[in-house]
Fold Rad50/SbcC-type AAA domain-containing protein.
Amino acid sequence: MKLVKLKIHPSGKTGWGSKDLLFASDITQLYGPNGAGKTPVIHSIAFALGYPVRYRDDIMAKCSSVSLTVEHEQEYFTFERSFSDKFHIEVSEKGSKEARIFYNEQEISEYLLSRLGLSSLALTSNNNEPTYPYVSTFLPLFYIDQDAGYTSAYRPPGGFIKDQYAEMVRLGLGIAPKHSFEAKRFLIEKKKDLDLVNIQIVNTEEFIRKLEEPSDIGNISVSEIEEELDQFRGELEDLRNSFDVTNDADYVLQRLIREKQNERLNLVASIKNLENRISGFNKIKNEIEIEINTLSLNEESRRLFSSFNEICAAPSCGLFTSSSDSYGKNLLYLRDQIKDLDRNTKFQEVRLDEYISRLRRFDEEIASLESSLTKEEENSQTTSLIAAISALTRSIIDRQGKKDVLKRIESEKHDYVQLLNKRKRLQGDISSFEGGAGSGDIRILEFRNSYRKKIVEWLDVLSTKNVSRDIAVDSDFNILFGAEKLSQFSGSTLLRTVLALRAAFFELFISMGCTSIEFLIFDTPRQHDIETKDFAAFITKLKSICKGNRAQIVFSTTEYHYNAAEGDIEWKPEFSGFEQPMYLGVIDNNQAPN
């Protein structure tokens, strides 16, 4: 979800409002002195989404509502929330005539998280009762409040969910919750989904194989085929416009013959490879049959020994029970191998027949081209021109067919990769629940390892001193800096470390393709605790993340001024105040600020 536009509406003619504040695709900066009203504007972004915010009395009295337009998966939504003691949010979707109204945070949270595609599974509360995530529990991963946000890696207004921080990180990453209240139902659904995905993967593999086998495309790419098509079309056009038709047609036919001969050589090599493979399968099959015969002889010997009363007097003496069981298992295994070899051999023989048929077609095409080339020397220019145009046209049709097949294969392979990723997620979810705490989910291990590396990078960007780079991230995403916890830091060290943690999490979250939230909001940090050059390096690094991803940064600042580049916007205080310009003020409809 990306931010599009914010607007604060005044309460009456003398109330305070704002202009239409458009968010940048990359960085949106609020630059102004203390007291200019940056924080109420920043707060209003989260407030519009249902986040609990405590405003000062003058804001509550002078402002009537805030409207926030967002975009998610090419759909636009506008959230309008009243500045009132009573909870009231109206959501309108672009293209829909009716708006939805929500009267509490639970309702808006359920709606918003559902639209963002986040899990609706019930979690476990601190009282061991079922509960669900709220906007106020999830948004603090991406919204840093000025008052308490710079004291920890996660600072929500309240905590009522067991291991709330870990659960919200898992929710954002699409990983199974640690304490689900519906684990049994979840496992059943995920296993059904996994079975379906496995079937889809097998079907897709088979479909891709069927597309690739008869197409004779080799290792050629779509771009290479397009280059060949352009060349053929260019030659065709040159023939039509040529004054020396005979020589041009002769050159085209000779080049097409060489090309067909090269393709024939590649096909002959493929046929030879298939023949060797089939021969190898037959040799293995013969060796297995010899092993089966050896086993059968051993079994005959066992039966013979069993018939001697001196060796096995009782009918069920059990002397050869172990060898009998082993014989049965080995025989079954070897026969299964022969069945597999027969299937593979039959499949390769079918491919061989297709390749041989294709070789015959190549020979016929080459003979036809050579015949046309010979006739050109004896016949008129018209005959040679027709032969060359006909050969070029066939080549164009052939390449166009290959191009269509390649595009379909690329599309299927893209879907195949998506299915593999989905299977990996499902396997991780199932592993999480069946393994108890869920730390065995490979995605969590990968995230923790990457998170640790990113934290080190961001600590260096911010020139954070006196903090160990020997970082450990536990299964609940808590961080240890050597032997120290974050709570042991203070002042400049604490501020820089928190900024590093938030930026590291956001960069990793975005790079993993998570799209539920695509913005990170920094309300004004205490800039006397961080040097301007270090904060500038921090913002510059964030800008680089925005350039390569769908990511937005919104930050307010008093001292450091970021020079906006392409894709950035600066919001300035443009309303007259008693002592300084303000972000909110009385709107004159005839002279609204630009």
